[in-house]
From TrEMBL:
InterPro entries: Beta-ketoacyl_synthase (IPR000794), Ketoacyl_synth_AS (IPR018201), Ketoacyl_synth_N (IPR014030), PKS_Beta-ketoAc_synthase_dom (IPR020841), Thiolase-like (IPR016039)
Name used for this protein in its record: beta-ketoacyl-[acyl-carrier-protein] synthase I
Keyword vocabulary terms for this entry: Transferase
The species this protein was found in: Aegilops tauschii subsp. strangulata
Domain of life according to the entry: Eukaryota
Major enzyme class: transferase
EC number per UniProt: 2.3.1.41
SUPFAM superfamilies: Thiolase-like (SSF53901)
GO cellular component labels: mitochondrion
Any Gene Ontology biological process: fatty acid biosynthetic process
Amino acid sequence: GVGSTWDRLVAGDCAVRALAAEDLRLTGDAAGRTLEQLPSRVFAAVPRGKGEAEFDEEAWTKDSRSISGFIAYALCAADEALRDANWLPSENEKKERTGVSIGGGIGSISDILDASQLIAENRLRRLSPFFIPKILINMASGHVSMKYGFQGPNHAAVTACATGAHSIGDATRMIQFGDADVMVAGGTESSIDALSIAGFSRLRALSTKYNSLPQASSRPFDCGRDGFVIGEGCGVMVLEALDHAMERGAKIYAEVRGYGMSGILRFHKRDGLLCH
């Protein structure tokens, strides 16, 4: 939650730790063999458990077999944001004017990996009928809308590292355009699994020099940086027009002053020429 996360930030508590075989969500000897092949062995995971500062996954997945990790994070964060904003309307008119804009990067790769394994083992009949709903990015927004009965815009951006910013910006514009009075906006990700880490490793995007010193590996502005640290989590906020917030006496934390999108494309073609 916000309180425990803020306390950890103020205390300088680092969540980055060494990757272990059990973190890869593989069965049998496959986890150990895969770990040995990964060049990056550091990650930042959401603490799981039933403690005060831990995420109780069962509490958010027990109601539906179509809820995967990134959807559960979105449900949890949205619930805290809505309660903090005191926006849990019961009137249909208010529900119709409330929308959700929660995006993600890659969804539930671990479920895709599990499903692929079933097919490889000729066990297609064991594939869950909820497989597709569990991996679709838009189902994070969908489940939040269904839980609270929101009938406004339902939106899901999928733009890698810019997803959260785009989700908030798009939600702001939906309010400005009159499509909604209130928007629940944010981003969610649950990508700690063998395939996600292997994929980013092959892309040479992850830090590899600090496997023995995990808490020193995330250093984006340091001259010794060598890649990012893969992590997971979710952030959600409640957006509304200023007059709407003041009229109902809402707590106001910040103001969205503007939003823009642009594409800055720079890459080397195979002939060596730089395109931008």
